[in-house]
Amino acid sequence: LSANTIFSWVGCADCFCDTHSHLTMPPTLTHSASTTTLHKIRSSHQKTLPSSDATDLSSSRSYDDFLVEQQRDTDSALSVSPLKMKAAVSLPLGSNSASPAKDGFSSSGTGVVAASGTNPSQKMNFYVLIDGISPFILNLNILKNHHYLQIATQYYSELYDGKPPGPIFLSKAIHFGNGDKWFYFKRRATLQVKFQYEVQLRTPIYEELQSCQESILMGKNPSRQFLNVDEVLRVVSLNRLLLLITDPWAPQYYINVFWCTYNSFTEAKVVLDKLKERWFIPDLLKEEYNYSMQQEIFYNTVVKRKVRQRVAALLHDYVKQCFWHFDDDMVQLLHKFAQEEIQGVFPTLAQKLLGVMASTSRLPPWESYRQKKIPKNMMASMQRGSASRTTSILNIPVKDLAEQLTLLDMRFYNKIHYTEMWNQSWSKAKYRHRAPNLMDHINFLNHVSNWVAQIVCSEPNLNNRKKLIKRFIKTAEHLMKIRSYNMMMAVDSGLSSGPVYRLSLTWDDLDESVLAKREPIAALTSTSDNFKKFRAAMQQAYEQGEPCVPYSGVYLRDLVFTDDGNPTFIDGKVNFNKCIQTYNLFQLVLRFQGRDYGFSELPNLQAEIETHEQASKDELYDLSTGIQPRGVR
User: Fold this and answer.
1) pLDDT per residue over 157-192, tens digit each?
2) Residue of 325, 314, 184, 154 whose CA lies nearest to 241
3) CA gap 34, 147 in Å, rounded
């Protein structure tokens, strides 16, 4: 018994392994000259079947007679799909040829024999109908009844290359007097049902069946930058997923995805109960495995210990990241479990777990957030459009203005927590309180955009207005240079806003060289190919280790499409591919947190920007028409 086999049994190293029961022909089925032949079956084949499970017809009637009686005037035929053509071509079932048959009925001369007491040369037609599959006919020797069941089951399996979606069972059988047989099979859904979420809640984790296509499916990796493998989990049952993340050799990436998204498909109490179940690894049973003493020692000292160590570590992470999901009963259960179970095996881990439980707040992140109080408006004494404000902005170096905008924005960005992106909280009024920092980040972009538009529209002097626009264009250009993309979008959108854009007399009087400075920004932020250039610029900044404040709108838009366009469950199992996509987008939004620009703070300038009193759309439009009336070009 190899180590890998042991791990497979406890759900560790073999979590990804697809195991299938390959049907084999019984030893008595040795050699025969029978052949499989493809026939066209009339559409009347699918008419209502006799009510009895098995029907014997008189010897004077055949299967063809039965079809004629069912529908005399039917001349149409069912077409056979390419998949069925592959397996239903004429092929000997046990010919003298040593080459293996491609349809799975014969391998190295193995075939079937006639039933005892029958003429080996006598032939019969075996008509098979399986739910959801084009019917087919096999031309065989007369056999015993259980052999027909085995042949049909193996044939069905080989149609799916040995990996059928589930077992089949015989529903109806008609035995014709001339020896022909007609079997109707239905697909058994019990295997699929075992992996559905509701059933998995009631199924102990160690009663999970071996990994198979019904419990775990792999798919192409959509993003190698987070996990450099060809395939990742696509669909998985709940128990199999818990077995996977508690595998000591499982990628940390899957654990991260789980913690960031589990609330979308299950409840906190379910996770705690499943982790506790995983701790109690069953002993090896000698009647199941012929293992040696060395293997038993390995199982008990290595396998069990590593799995339990992973469980204890995950419980620690669970409390640290999601303790606010725990109710009082869960806290008591975990405290008791740490003292009675973990303490005796890993005393250090038990103390760490108890310590983090004592020190971690159970308030949700959005409730523990204390919104920064905005100081009184330091610029309240200034009238909108006053010369002092214009002079102030024009006297500020472009570099200083760009850097202070970036520092202010970075404060909000660095505080964003991944939970603020759950369930599209930022876009739903009733959930926005759960995304305070993300909303600050978004609102500050709108705040700066409004600030730029108001300053331009408040300036009555044409020359000063031109200077202000030129100053803001250069500011946006510098923001792009230092990769402060959120503020670059804010300044540029302020210049592109309706009240500013309509000032044609001002824009027409600007030099072409000034206007040309906006072209690289327009190219970078182009929506073509789904913001391809913008995404590439942010990715390049990340790979080069440069500080950056991303324009989160690109990724938040992706999150909406991912959330709305993908089901949480597929056939009752967790759509883990959706979880992976969601986690990857969380990472794309938050990956620049903590990268320091090293800019110096200028408190007075920051206060002027931050405490700006926003003008409404109507107020901005009135300011704009005041300096260039409607109809003036």
Assistant:
1) 877 667 776 778 888 888 888 888 999 888 766 567
2) 314
3) 13
Integer Cα distance of 588 and 260 in angstroms: 14
**How far is residue 425 CA from its own chain's centroid?**
19
Residue 208 has what DSSP assignment?
A: P
Could you write out the DSSP letters of every residue in 289-352?
Answer: ----HHHHHHIIIIIHHHHHHHHHHHHHHHHHHHGGG--HHHHHHHHHHIIIIIHHH-HHHHHH
Per-residue 3-state assignment (H helix, E strand, C coil) for 276-290 = HHHHCCCCCCCCCCC
User: Which element (helix H / strand E) includes 91?
Assistant: strand 91-92
Q: State the sign of the Cα–Cα–Cα–Cα dihedral 26, 28, 30, 33.
A: negative
Extract the tokens encoding 56: 């014997």
Short-list 619, 385, 631, CA closest to 502: 631
Query: How far, in Å, CA of 105 to CA of 153, rounded?
Result: 11
Please provide residue 308's backbone torsions phi and psi, each rounded to the nearest 5 degrees: -65, -35
Structure tokens at 214: 């019904």
What are the beta bridge partners of residue 217?
Answer: 235
Per-residue pLDDT for 594 more than 60?
Answer: yes
Tell me how far apart the alpha carbons of residues 287 and 366 are, in angstroms, rounded to a whole number: 54
- Confidence bin at 44 (pLDDT 50/70/90): very low
Q: Are 476 and 495 in contact (CB under 8 A)?
A: yes
In residues, how long is the chain? 633
Q: Cα separation of 607 and 404, whole Å?
A: 10
**Residue keyed to tokens 């620049």:** 592
Please state the separation of Cα 214 from the chain's center in Å. Answer: 17
Q: How many Å apart are CA 203 and CA 319, to the nearest integer? A: 25
Q: Is 141 helix (H, G, I), strand (E, B) or coil?
A: strand
Residue 629 near residue 460, CB atoms below 8 Å: no
Distance, CA of 390 to chain centre: 51
Let me know: does 525 contact 574? Beta carbons within 8 Å.
no
pLDDT band with cut points at 50, 70 and 90 for residue 131: confident
> How many CB atoms within 10 Å of residue 194?
18
Q: Give the number of other CB atoms < 10 A from CB of residue 94.
A: 24
Amino acid at 24: T
Write the pLDDT tens digit of every residue in 547-592: 999 999 999 999 999 999 899 998 889 999 999 999 999 999 999 9
Distance CA 95, CA 103 (A): 14
Going 355 to 358 to 362 to 368, the CA torsion angle's sign is negative
Short-list 137, 32, 152, CA closest to 93: 32
pLDDT of 57: 41
Q: Mind listing the pLDDT tens digit for each residue in 67-126? A: 444 434 333 322 333 333 233 322 222 333 333 333 332 222 223 334 444 555 678 888
> CB burial class (10 A; 0-12, 13-18, 19+) of residue 344?
exposed
Please write the tens of the pLDDT for every residue from 323-368. 999 999 999 999 999 999 999 999 999 999 999 999 999 998 888 7
